[in-house]
Amino acid sequence: MSSSFGHAFRIHTFGESHGGGVGVVIDGVPPRVAVTVEDIQKELDRRRPGQSEIVTPRKEADRAEILSGVVDGQTLGTPIAVIVRNEDQRPGAYDEMAQKYRPSHADYTYDAKYGIRALSGGGRASARETIGRVAAAAVAKKVLDTLYPGIEVLAWVKSIHDLNATVDASAVTAEEIEGNIVRTGDAAMVEPMIERIKAVRAEGNSVGGVVECVIRNCPPGLGEPVFDKLEAELAKAMLSLPATKGFEIGSGFAGTLLTGREHNDPFRMVEGKVRTTSNRSGGIQGGISNGENIVFRVAFKPTATIMTSQETVTSGGENTELQGRGRHDACVLPRAVPMVEAMAVLVLCDHLLRQRGQVGGFPAPEV
């Protein structure tokens, strides 16, 4: 089972949801980059369970331990290993599911592929696997801050079910997003979204939605022109997250309703730089960043575990029914925001290091 991602900045995540712990090994980190366990913990606290009334009540502190690669707050240039021990495990909640496949989960497909699976909590298919990604992205952020300060990655909840937020991707701030438990950038939609999540949870049901993300101050020139197009790398990164079902960038599917004249982004010189007067390309053209804001959206399905009875089959091939148990999110969107940001940061860091290795990188930006 492959669990690696990236090229120049490469990560390998490990661990199961109800095993001893989960974590990541990070390779390709330059030496003498300032990194502390507090940098990592800050990001892990944003994705941990039990942080608000609308997410799973599983109680995990998600305390990070750096096992290698960092001494006295600086990277050595050697592999960095980070682990988070699992503490609040309840494997007994999954006894029935050892024999019955959970609808829309990975139970059946893992058995079909490997003939064996971790029976408790979904194993590697659990969103708990993303701890390693978020920890690695915290390190990647420090690399970006060192090599190309000014790059900013922000994600927010764009929609939950049929409730849609209106957010200005060029102006929204981290404080606005983190200032509410839904993590949306539209203050008017906070309470309606909270109430929707509470209502579906009370029914034993779940809802999905869309996370939108912007990358600001990305230099032009990142990405490869054929198979490793920057948007292709972002799409792969986002669709590797649990519960994702769709990705679009810039105008996305709505762009199909426009003509070429309406869709093209005209170029103009602004203060000595090539800029575009619109951004329907979403900041990427020909697979390479053009210096404009990179804006994309990721669709997340409704949480597969619901607290009502559903038809399913047993591992022995018998028809049966199963009712969900355990502690689960009725909507994954609020906790998905830092995961989307993390994967975007990993892609950017990898491509920045690849660019430096190919053509010497970029001049330092004006700050």
Give a description of the structure.
This protein is α+β, with helices and mostly antiparallel strands and 367 residues long. 26% of the residues lie in helices and 23% in strands. The chain has 8 helices and 18 strands. Helix 1 crosses helix 3. The mean pLDDT is 92.
Summarize this structure as a short list of keywords or feature phrases.
alpha+beta; five-stranded antiparallel beta sheet; globular
Topology:
Elements (H helix, E strand, L loop, with lengths): L3 E2 L4 E6 L5 E7 L9 H11 L16 E5 L1 E2 L2 E2 L4 E6 L21 H8 L15 H18 L4 E9 L2 E2 L9 H5 L11 H13 L6 E8 L13 H10 L4 E6 L10 H4 L3 E4 L2 E4 L7 E2 L2 E2 L4 E7 L8 E5 L5 E5 L9 H27 L8
Antiparallel strand pairs: 1-2, 2-3, 3-7, 4-7, 5-6, 8-9, 8-10, 10-16, 11-16, 12-13, 14-15, 17-18
Helix pairs in contact: 1-3, 3-8, 6-8
Reading the helices and strands in chain order gives EEEHEEEEHHEEHHEHEHEEEEEEEH
Mean pLDDT: 92
Tally of helical segments:
8
- Number of β-strand runs: 18
Brief digest:
With 367 residues, this protein is α+β, with helices and mostly antiparallel strands.
